[in-house]
Amino acid sequence: MAIQNPPVSQTKSFSTVFLIEMWERFGFYGMQVLMVTYMVKKLGFAEADSNLIWGAASALIYATPAIGGWIGDKFIGTRRTMLTGAVVLMFGYAMLWIPTNNALFLYVALGVIILGNGLFKPNAGNLVRKIYEGDEVKIDSAFTIYYMAVNIGSTISMLLTPWIRDYVGQHYNDALGWHTAFGVCSIGLILGLINYFFMRHTLAHIGSAPDERPLVARNVLGVALGGVAIIAASAYILRNQGVAEACVYLAGVVILGIFVHLIRSVEKSERAGLIAALVLTVQTIFFFIFYQQMSTSLNLFAQRNVDLEFSLFGMPIFRWIPEQFQSLNAIWIVILSPILVWIYNTLGRHGKDFSVAAKFALGFAAVAVGFFMYGLGALSAVGGQISSWYMVWGYGFYSLGEVLVSGLGLAMIARYVPARMGGFMMGAYYVASGVSQYMGSVVANFAAIPKDITDPMQSLPIYTSLFNKLGFVGIGCTVIAIAMLPLMRRLSLDHALADVPPVPPVHNEDL
């Protein structure tokens, strides 16, 4: 790559990516926090349809980064692809800013957002890796800060956009409130792009090989036509739930089939690691089914069956908007992550750190407790509404499970998968995560409330029935994970003895 003159510090280069990532996550989570309720309350969709549409969008959002990373590495460059993704996302959110209730327009806007996310996410993370390439101590610290950007941006936007929607809606009109809130997501990307423009020189020497060469017209045209195709295909899938369901389950079967084929065909020394990776990937898929409840069933539950007033010893403290409860996830992760890192480091110094498999078991136990909290809250509900504090502690346990399970997903790939399969396996991991997000929306529909039910006393048992069942499923996952520990120990030992070259350390920028 080109050498800067004068040289640019790693910190300045990192700050440029850090800030645009923060604004990108601001826009994405500001949109996500409102999307399901927007479809239900403004577009008049049934809860079941809204859950499935967002589930399909989530699946596509997780799948497309595999394509975006390939485009950045091979065709137009990592840096250029990240910037293109940010611009596409800006236009996607700007489309939601337009005051229309046309459902097809929504699907196209989501298609643009899916494309933008696919271009942006993998390449922003790759730039951070390239900035600190060869310095594993600094890269771990950099991704810790980078991860903080994700949660800072998401926390602020998940608190802000619902408030903007309500404020504008009350002072002007309801439609303007919704679309102004989405518009703020676009403004976040505009601010991120303006900041990038003034700091772009700090990344002039960072990127992949195509970044150093003039753009090739054929590559640009191919990417543009491919982008249009992704938008059109995404809109078609979102509009046709039968197609979405078929695509999702087909992807799941294909990934499982490829896993089985690889396990059967690889060298014996590599087999133990692949089996271990498959076991942990399946467990991660189950976690994402739980994860998807945050933007679907738990979000709609907060609309109907949560007392929005936070009180302490009978004294009101403050009041939240239902969608704002989703921000508890990011808040808890920021609180819990450094604590867990300290615990891991302390145990590691004494040679007593838990295995990845053991952390998965603990994570599922925490998720189970989190879902049981909502059922527990129902026992003392007043007028069909539980105390907001049960949501705080429910999200707390759930977020602890997220850090223990999902946060270790890519680390697991790096540990157990041979280096020559790393790219494919990380792509398969993301696609599998997307499949499970759709499955999570299917699960959320077990608590989809018919439009004729408006009484909180009637909807409360429907929601808590689902949450209690998910709690028991979490216990089942915990028991299975514990039962698998001896097998995982044996597989880990066999993998270690085989001395298979690992994938270079990878990081999950979201979790």
From TrEMBL:
It is a multi-pass membrane protein. The keyword Protein biosynthesis does not apply. It is found in: Cell membrane. The chain crosses the membrane at residues 22-40, 52-72, 81-98, 104-120, 141-164, 176-198, 219-237, 243-263, 272-291, 325-344, 356-376, 396-417, 429-450, 470-488. Its main location: membrane. InterPro entries: Dipep/tripep_permease (IPR005279), MFS_dom (IPR020846), MFS_trans_sf (IPR036259), MFS_Transporters (IPR050171), POT_fam (IPR000109). Keywords: Cell membrane, Membrane, Peptide transport, Protein transport, Transmembrane, Transmembrane helix, Transport. The keyword Transmembrane helix applies. Pfam families: PTR2. Residues 1-489 form the Major facilitator superfamily (MFS) profile domain. PROSITE patterns: MFS. It comes from the Bacteria. SUPFAM superfamilies: MFS general substrate transporter (SSF103473). This is Oligopeptide:H+ symporter. The lineage of its organism: Bacteria, Pseudomonadati, Pseudomonadota, Gammaproteobacteria, Lysobacterales.
